[in-house]
Amino acid sequence: MASKKLGKQTVKFDHPPVIIGTAATVGPKEGQGPLSSYFDTVLSDDLYGENSWELAESKMLRETVKLAVQKSDKNITDMEYMLSGDLLNQLMSATFAARDLGIPFFGLYGACSTMTESLSLGSMLIDGGYAKHLVAVTSSHFSAAERQFRFPLELGNQRPLTAQWTVTGSGAAILASYGQGPRITHVTTGKVIDLGIKDANNMGAAMAPAAADTIATHFEDTGFAPESYDLIVTGDLGAIGKEITQEMVYDRGYNIAKVYNDCGLMIFDNKAQDTHAGGSGCGCSASVFCGYIYQQLQKNKLNRVLLISTGALLSTTSAQQGQSIPGIAHAVTITNNVKG
Questions:
Q1: Which of 176, 191, 216 represents a domain boundary (last residue)?
Q2: Would 311 disulfide with which of 113, 124, 179, 326, CB 3.0-4.6 Å?
């Protein structure tokens, strides 16, 4: 059997999985941003009727899965796997949602890279014949993430200009072995890269080297070039990380400036909404992809997209011990130009 591997870190699917439906839920602040009309649900209250931010996030993830399944004309019982994770300890949001949904569950931790990690592994399961339908989903919540990784909101700490705003949001994508919709044709799995950044309020700089390496490696493995894509979009880098990534990719021989954007810059109006360097969090790339980008693919306004979600693999323990912040980025090619 012919190998599906291309180059060092990329696979090309013989039977590209189709994304038959998505759903995106966001919080009130995200609902005031430029992409508001592309989200299925905008919460009126960050607590979502729950007693804690963490339970609100889990409910958001659970309800987003239900809506994505419904929009795909499938049932929860059709889902053979749920691949999911979040930013909280022990994947609290995803685990509690999986408990309630009753779908066989793979818990993933890639920090903010979890959306493309789940899409990557889900695509491999579909292409390998191990499932016909599954859901890839993730979430994040501003207040829950601040409490865990930085400072409780009650302290009123001033945020530096390099800081990003963790998106309150969730995105779910239903992958299938057949059907109509954009397909995932390639996956480039990232490496953990750490250039020594220790500032937890400058995540863009910490994650940018991993994003740049994955993008350049994707081009080297596949033979694609920046002009092969209508949009190359990172997930969670914000203004600072986007600029660094663009420069580092250029140093590897690829000028992506004409087609490159970042979900963290798309979801908020940074100046009007005072989000400093932009958005981040698992829910950032998840909600922007499952909302805006997926709809643009459906309407043929985009035909080929390279989505690269980026994650900072720190923990509260590693930060307290003075360790630097490792980064990871995974890339998936999503295209309309595949029949079947």
A1: 176
A2: 113
Rounded CA separation 12/58 (Å) = 33
pTM: 0.93
Structural domain boundaries enclosing 34: 5-176
| Count of beta carbons in the 10 Å neighbourhood of residue 251 | 10
Pair (214, 82) in one structural domain: no
Q: What is the pLDDT of residues 241-262, one digit of tens each?
A: 999 999 999 999 999 999 999 9
Give the separation between CA 62 and CA 170, rounded to whole angstroms.
9
User: In the predicted model, what is the mean pLDDT of residues 17-45?
Assistant: 96
Check which CATH number belongs to the domain holding 16 and give it: 3.40.47.40
Shared domain check, 196 and 325: yes
Exposed (0-12), middle (13-18) or buried (19+): which is 227, by Cβ within 10 Å?
exposed
Q: What is the DSSP string of 104-170?
A: -EEE---GGGHHHHHHHHHHHHHHTTS-SEEEEEEEE-HHHHHHHHS--GGG-PPPPTT--EE--EE
**Count of residues in the chain:** 340
CB 222 within 8 A of CB 186: yes
**Together in a domain, 284 and 231:** yes
Examine residue 203 and state whether it is found in any structural domain, yes or no. Answer: yes
Q: Among 130, 158, 176, give the residue marking a domain's end.
A: 176
CA 173, CA 179: separation in Å to the nearest integer?
A: 14
